[in-house]
Amino acid sequence: MGKYFKKVVGEKCFLSPVNPDDFEKYTEWLNDPEISENMMVEDNIISLLKEKDILEKMAKGNDVFFAIVDLETEELIGNCGLHDINRINQSAVLGIFIGNREYLSKGYGTQAIKLLLNYGFNVLNLNNIMLEVFEYNKRAIRSYQKAGFKEIGRRRQAKFFKNNRYDIIFMDILREEFLEIKDGKGAIG
C-alpha cells in the first residue's frame, strides 16, 4: 500500500497527491480491457516502466493529479486530475478513472469528481472545467451529470470501438453552476 495524504477529503474517499510507487497497481488497471476501454489509452500497451515514468511526470508536473483513496480503508481506487490548466482563461480539462472494479457504480467516482471540482474552482480559481467522454460510457456520463456537468457538444462518430462508431461527448461546468449546488458552497459530498 502506498503512502497517502488527505489533501481533499469527502465522506467516502479522499484525494491524495499521486504516488509514483503505485505504478504496479496502475499498470494492472490500465491493461484491464474493461477499465481501459473507457479511457483514451485503450489502444496503448502500458508497461511497468512506462507507467512509472508517467506517474513520476504527473507528480512533478504543473498539472494537478490526485490518487483517489477510500477514506475508511486507505485503499487506492483510481486517480483524477486537471490538465491543460490555463491560468489566464481560468480553464482546465478533467480526467478520472476508477481502476479498482470493486468500487465501480458505488458513488466513489462522483464524489471524487466533486472533490476535484471543489479544488479546481475554490483553490485554483478556475471558471470552466471541461471533459471528454465516449458515448458508450453511460456510467461515466451519469456520474458527470450528477456532479453538475452539461453536454456542450459532440465530435460525431470519432470513436471506433468493437466494430461500431460512437460520438465523443464534450461536457463542462462553470464555477457559478458548481457553487449553486449545495447551498452555494459547491458540491462537496
TrEMBL record:
<dbReference type="InterPro" id="IPR016181">
    <property type="entry name" value="Acyl_CoA_acyltransferase"/>
</dbReference>
<protein>
    <submittedName>
        <fullName>GCN5-related N-acetyltransferase</fullName>
    </submittedName>
</protein>
<dbReference type="Pfam" id="PF13302">
    <property type="entry name" value="Acetyltransf_3"/>
</dbReference>
<dbReference type="GO" id="GO:0016747">
    <property type="term" value="F:acyltransferase activity, transferring groups other than amino-acyl groups"/>
</dbReference>
<feature type="domain" description="N-acetyltransferase">
    <location>
        <begin position="13"/>
        <end position="172"/>
    </location>
</feature>
<dbReference type="InterPro" id="IPR000182">
    <property type="entry name" value="GNAT_dom"/>
</dbReference>
